[in-house]
């Protein structure tokens, strides 16, 4: 895992930016996260639009989401980290409660 940015205060509060490189890095991230932490991640959302004629189209939109962590789960078989939380930054492509599956 690459540490891209670190800003830690003397009271251990702060922020880090991590870039996972191997599947095992999700396990280490799971052990770093705590309930109440803020998590920011880039994701792709499928957006459906309806035209004035009633036809429906869909497109994929890359967006950055930021949540306050409510639950953290790790699937050791798939090396997948799943984080659920409440949206803390307004975003037109997402609702109030989000789930991030990370591999």
TrEMBL record:
Q: Under the cellular component aspect of Gene Ontology, which terms does the record hold?
A: cytoplasm
Q: Which InterPro entries match?
A: eRF1_Pelota-like_N, Pelota/DOM34_N, Pelota_N, TF_pelota
Query: Which SUPFAM superfamilies does the entry mention?
Result: Dom34/Pelota N-terminal domain-like (SSF159065)
A GO BP term, please? nuclear-transcribed mRNA catabolic process, non-stop decay
Report the residue ranges that make up the eRF1/Pelota-like N-terminal domain in this protein.
1-103
A Pfam family found in this protein is Pelota_N
Query: Which residue windows are transmembrane per the record?
Result: none
Under what name is this protein listed?
A: Protein pelota homolog
| Gene name of the record | PELO
């Amino acid at each position: 895992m690459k540490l891209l940015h670190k800003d830690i205060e003397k009271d251990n509060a702060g922020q880090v930016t991590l870039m996972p490189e191997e599947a095992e890095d999700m396990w280490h991230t799971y052990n770093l996260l705590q309930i109440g932490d803020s998590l920011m991640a880039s994701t792709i959302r499928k957006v459906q639009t309806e035209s004035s004629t009633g036809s429906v189209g869909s497109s994929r939109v890359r967006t950055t989401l930021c949540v306050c962590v409510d639950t953290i789960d790790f699937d050791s078989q798939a090396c997948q980290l799943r984080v659920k939380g409440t949206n803390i930054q307004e975003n037109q492509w997402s609702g109030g409660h989000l789930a991030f599956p990370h591999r």
